[in-house]
Design goal:
The complex is a heterodimer of chains A (about 325) and B (about 260). With about 325 residues, chain A is an all-alpha fold. Chain A has 15 helices and no strands. The longest helix of chain B is centred in the C-terminal third of the chain and has 33 residues. Chain B has two domains: about 80 residues, no CATH class; about 160 residues, no CATH class. Classes of the chains: A mainly alpha (about 325), B mainly alpha (about 260).
Chain lengths: ~325, ~260
């Protein structure tokens, strides 16, 4: 077993799944390029190159590539819709029945199996889940091909359709995490922390928890996105005022803080996709009908977050 | 405990916060989100006195020849920080590798098949149907499947089923409106809180990446473990709210 581990580790590494993702992105980009949708093509090809070579390129080159992608998106060259999809136009061939679930179920199954295998080999379980996700995607492609009898070209075209239906938004988490890093370097978090400290003294645990969860919900409501609010709150309030001084389990505090923001998402018209568009889809007379229905639920669940986080820290749960 | 510091915000400090202001304004005005985020990084960094590029590689000999905000000795550049963080956080976008398989499965009737599965559920009341649907969406999340269910499930399937479950008569307009709003809410409840049950969904990976960037590494499985009480509470509160809806419909609806 011991001599196998290094080989195993190299094959099942994050770098190899980054490489695979990069290749898929190059294919997506190439397909767009062939249809003369050059902006789209360039965007996904650049992202593919970052996936393939992000580990070896000088950081300033990667940074400039990121700026180039954002310029492409900002000038409206990255479409959000796929072509009037062939998927709906052509009648589908023989339906695969319930077997159609197999490829979709293979992905989580593989993710968990590889994570367990990593743990068993004494390797990093975080990495195991991610590597499992990557290889799960590949295994799912094989299973999907077997179950449906579709060809590789159709598969890549359908993958591209899904990818382009999300558009540039799919790199947003990566960009937001980067913004968090720049905020940290510019010591923005320290300023926010100083602001909160001015209002709440450092030994009033309940008020600090309240400030943390309220800040998260309010930022989310204004930005319409809890993912954008989290890096700001984490660097400004959560880490300096709760995690460092109180020694609370950072995993617990962080994930609770994130979902405290989700209550904000339930209440804001800024999260149009979740609240306003559905009201239109369902022909509600009141465009805020969904938000109104969610209001008592969001307030109750947000209060649970405050109490749960406060109680967890106070009772010193591991 | 730490001594409470005097709050003195001087002009340069306030300028550093302008990045947050830019994000707030940009998101409200619906500028392209990607542009807002990168612009906020650049503005914040420059106003905090960081140069664009670290003085290394080809930039080293240019120190002194170019203005200080382009490159300067001894300070990390904004573009370098951006590039490094973007490369370090590639793990957040690995889901792209799952798209070809899911896309092909969709083409061969994945959604229709899932719809058939849901339709088989015989829920006696509107509230119970909504709870089952919320559970179905939590399952999606736990399996790592990303989906906005409003157009694919709620509108074509769940909303008509819920109206049907309300009784043999067409419910009064106000009640029908409430039922439809509740179907959209069930989708959001299941989606928002269920997705953190998977270690490879965007929310968990964002927290993982941000905390690592702040020097406090966390384990993705611990994040999943600690989100379960929240999922429990989200289901419990939904049970109460949907039970309340059923009660209301029994009183006002056309059932008796």
């Amino acid at each position: 077993m011991d001599h196998l581990t290094p080989l195993f580790a190299r094959l099942f590494s994050l770098d190899s799944v980054y490489g695979l993702t990069g290749l898929v992105l190059l294919v997506f980009g190439g397909l767009s390029w062939r249809e003369r949708r050059l902006g789209n093509g360039a965007f996904w090809i650049i992202l593919g190159l970052i996936f393939l070579f992000g580990g070896v390129l000088p950081h300033w080159v990667t940074g400039l590539l990121v700026v180039a992608m954002v310029v492409l998106d900002g000038t409206g060259r990255v479409g959000r819709r796929g072509e009037p999809s062939a998927a709906t136009a052509t009648p589908r061939p023989t339906p695969a029945g319930a077997r159609i679930f197999w490829p979709v179920l293979a992905i989580p199954l593989f993710t968990i199996l590889v994570a367990l295998l990593f743990r068993w080999l004494g390797m990093d379980g975080n990495r195991g889940a991610l590597v499992g996700l990557g290889f799960g995607g590949v295994v799912a492609m094989l299973i999907a091909k077997l179950v449906t009898g579709g060809d590789l070209r159709t598969m890549m075209n359908e993958g591209r359709r899904l990818n382009e239906s999300m558009g540039a938004v799919s790199i947003l988490p990566q960009l937001l995490a980067s913004l968090g890093v720049v905020f940290t370097a510019a010591q923005v978090g320290d300023l926010l922390a100083a602001g909160v400290r001015h209002l709440v003294s450092a030994d009033q645990l309940f008020l600090l928890v309240l400030a943390n969860c309220l800040g998260m919900a309010l930022f989310t409501m204004v930005m319409g996105n809890s993912f954008a609010a989290f890096p700001v709150l984490a660097s400004g309030v959560l880490v300096p005022l709760l995690i460092r001084p109180y020694g609370v389990d950072p995993a617990l505090a962080a994930i609770i803080t994130l979902t405290a923001g989700s209550s904000g998402t339930l209440l804001t018209p800024m999260a149009a996709n979740f609240n306003i568009v559905p009201a239109a889809l369902l022909n509600l007379r009141d465009q805020y009908g969904v938000i109104r229905y969610q209001l008592p639920y969001a307030l109750a669940l947000w209060s649970f977050h405050v109490l749960w986080l406060w109680w967890s820290i106070r009772s010193g749960r591991p | 405990m730490e001594r409470q510091r005097e709050l003195k915000m001087e002009l340069p400090d306030l300028l550093r916060l302008s990045g947050i202001g830019l994000v707030l304004i940009g998101m409200r005005r619906r500028w392209r989100t990607t542009v807002v985020v990168v612009a906020a990084a650049l503005v914040t960094g420059l106003l905090a006195g960081l140069p664009l590029f670290t003085a290394e590689g080809p930039w080293k000999p240019l120190v002194g020849q170019l203005p200080g905000w382009v490159t300067r000795d001894g300070q990390a550049g904004i573009i370098n920080l951006l590039g490094k963080a973007f490369a370090d956080n590639r793990l957040m976008t690995l889901f792209i590798l799952t798209l070809p398989a899911i896309g092909l499965a969709e083409r061969y009737g994945l959604q229709e098949e899932a719809g058939r599965l849901i339709r088989r559920v015989r829920a006696a009341t509107v509230g119970r149907l909504l709870l089952v649907y919320q559970g179905f969406r939590i399952l999606h999340g736990a399996l790592g499947i990303r989906l906005n269910g409003h157009p694919s499930f709620v509108r074509p399937l769940i909303a008509p089923m819920a109206l049907g479950a309300a009784g043999p008569h067409v419910p009064p307009v106000a009640e029908a409106e409430r039922i439809r709003a509740a179907t959209a809410a069930a989708e959001n409840y299941g989606n928002f809180y269920g997705q953190n049950l998977s270690p490879v969904q965007a929310g968990v990976l964002l927290v993982f990446g941000v905390m690592q960037g702040l020097g406090i590494p966390v384990n993705v499985w611990d994040l999943v473990r600690h989100t379960t009480p929240v999922v429990g509470a989200s289901v419990l509160l939904a049970m109460i709210q949907f039970w309340w809806l059923d009660r209301r419909l029994r009183r006002h609806g056309g059932r008796d």
